[in-house]
């Protein structure tokens, strides 16, 4: 089966596994999309996120002529790196310009992200990270796009910033928020869910010692769960430590279906529908 992957760095897949491997993978997704269109099923999606203010044009060039393919969605965002955090305002300005340029060229950006807080690598102060993250939350709200959130060892501050970004005017729709590569336990999952967030699980669900993560998976409602590779990282067992691609995500789906007590095909259908609800 070909499965929806809500977070795959396709340029990283090309670098680690080769351009031919990426082309073959995209051919598989194109074929699956065509087959599902005939059968009236929700076709699997790939979401390729951004990490740098200016990486969107490079990713579009890499994926031509597939950048407008019905199975592919592009996001644009700024990961909290030392370079991007040296001037959050400049990074945000460049990001907004890149999204506008892509739109002007006929390439739709489906989400803002990934952006957020990383207190593990801690490449700049919490204040600088908060400024960059809050700016992206605000941009997503203005553009009416979902926000893809990176949060590592920063659950409390992530929750606070998401809550603070909610619109004051009740007549304005709230931009959806997706917590990607969820890395916390059930208590944090409940808190994010109370804020209306979607939650995405990656290959670390299959790793030894992931008990709290598996508890969190079990309590996420059907209409807010997604699955991802975060490729070329997070290869699910038994290939942990090797570069991954969306072709590896089936092992994560299999375990998630087992843990949730649902058929694999039903979970695949659910995740595809949730991804299309978010990114379409």
Which key terms come to mind for this protein?
TIM Barrel; alpha/beta; 280 residues; 47% helix; globular; seven-stranded parallel β-sheet; 11 helices
What is the count of structural domains? 1
Neighbour order of strands in the largest sheet: 1-2-3-4-5-6-7
Shape call: globular
Rg for CA atoms: 18 Å
CATH superfamily placement = Metal-dependent hydrolases
In CATH terms, what is the fold-level topology?
TIM Barrel
Can you count the helices?
Answer: 11
One letter per element, helices H and strands E, the order comes to HHEHEHHEHEHEHEHEHH
Oligomer: single chain
Residue runs with pLDDT of under 50 for 5 or more positions: none
Report, as a whole number of angstroms, the end-to-end distance: 22 Å
Share of helix among residues? Answer: 40-55%
Name the average pLDDT: 94
What can you see in these coordinates?
The chain has 280 residues and is α/β, with parallel strands linked by helices. It has a single domain (10-279), classed as TIM Barrel (Alpha-Beta Barrel), CATH 3.20.20.140. It has 11 helices and 7 strands. Strands 1-2-3-4-5-6-7 form a 7-stranded parallel β-sheet, with helices on both faces. Helix 5 packs parallel to helix 6 (126-143) and helix 10 (250-260) crosses helix 11 (264-279). The radius of gyration is 18 Å and the shape is globular. The model has no long low-confidence stretch (mean pLDDT 94).
